[in-house]
Amino acid sequence: MVYGAHAIEHGTTRWGRWLRERRLRITLWLAAFEGLLYLFHVLHWWAAVGLAIVAVGFWWYVARGNKSDTLRQLGWIFAASQLLVLCVPIALALVKALAIGMIAILAIVALFFLFRERP
Fold first, then answer.
1. How far apart are CA 33 and CA 44, in angstroms?
2. What is the pLDDT of residues 19-68, one digit of tens each?
3. What's the CA gap between 96 and 13, in Å, rounded?
4. pLDDT value of position 45
5. Can you tell me the distance from the alpha carbon of 63 to that of 85, in angstroms, rounded to the nearest whole number?
6. Over residues 69-97, mean pLDDT
7. What's the CA dihedral at 60, 66, 8, 14 to 10 degrees?
8. Whole-prediction pTM value?
9. Which residues contact 13 (CB under 8 A, 6 or more apart)?
10. Angle at CA 46, nearest 5°, toward 42 and 51?
11. Interatomic CA distance for residues 45 and 39, integer angstroms
12. Which of 91, 72, 84, 93 is nearest to 30 (CA)?
């Protein structure tokens, strides 16, 4: 009996397997870096949207069915990281809207106490 041996999947390459094992980590690091670029206004919202469209299109039409395992993994990493980058401005808009809502509620409560007070 052989314990701890891994079967090599048919059609994979050494680089493809290496990328597959680390693709989530690579994706998260790329998305974090590009998210910071967006937050510091180096990357514009529409550039992020355009890059995500290109990345998903590349993955869908080129990488997804390609015979090259490395290209499939790189396409997946590229598409997933660009889609995660789009979550940054969406999350920022949600947090901004929540902050504005909280300020409005605090202002209404303050006005209530101000008008309730009698001289």
1. 14
2. 889 999 999 999 999 989 988 989 888 988 999 999 999 999 999 888 88
3. 45
4. 85
5. 20
6. 91
7. -100
8. 0.72
9. 68, 69, 70
10. 85
11. 10
12. 84
- Return the higher-pLDDT residue of 29 and 2: 29
**Lookup result for tokens 């995500």:** 52
- Region of residue 2 (left: phi > 0; alpha: psi -120 to 50; beta: else): beta
Q: Provide the 3-class DSSP secondary structure of residue 101.
A: helix
Question: What pLDDT does 18 receive?
Answer: 87
Place of tokens 């660009």: 82
Q: Which of 38-69 are b and which e, b meaning 16 or more Cβ less than 10 Å from the residue's Cβ?
A: beeeebeeeebeebbeebbebbeeebeeeeeb
The one-letter amino acid at 14: R
Amino acid of residue 11: G
In whole angstroms, what is the distance from residue 38 CA to residue 51 CA?
A: 13
Q: Where are the alpha helices (H) located in 10-68, listed in sequence order?
A: 14-39, 45-58
Q: How far is CA 39 from CA 8, 13, 42, 99, 118, in A?
A: 41, 37, 8, 17, 47
Residues in the chain: 119
